[in-house]
Design a protein that fits this description.
Number of strands: 0
Distance between the termini: 10 Å
Strand content: under 5%
Largest sheet: none
Low-confidence stretches: none
Structural class: mainly alpha
Radius of gyration: 19 Å
Number of helices: 2
Shape: elongated
Number of domains: 1
Length: 88
């Protein structure tokens, strides 16, 4: 019982990391590129870094949404199937 719960918790963490990784990596890469651009041109405008990050993250979310939904649906289906095992 405890082993199953630990496996379920580990699976939850894995799915969370996998789903958030493309979004966070996109924000990081765009932020790094904008920072390099701002350092070379000495332009210190906050919206210059904020707007491209938002647009990039939105594009990645739209592009990866089917994959994310499939992962979440599979996880939820498995979780619902495990409910009778935890009740016993």
């Amino acid at each position: 019982m405890e082993g199953q719960l630990m496996a379920l918790a580990i699976e939850s963490y894995k799915i969370t990391l996998l789903i958030s990784l493309p979004i966070l990596a996109t924000g990081l890469m765009i932020g790094l590129l904008i920072s390099i651009f701002q350092a070379t041109t000495q332009i210190n405008e906050m919206t210059l870094s904020f707007v491209p990050k938002i647009l990039g993250v939105i594009a990645v979310v739209i592009f990866t949404m089917p994959w994310m939904l499939n992962m979440l649906i599979d996880y939820t289906t498995n979780l619902i199937a495990l409910i009778p095992k935890f009740i016993d």
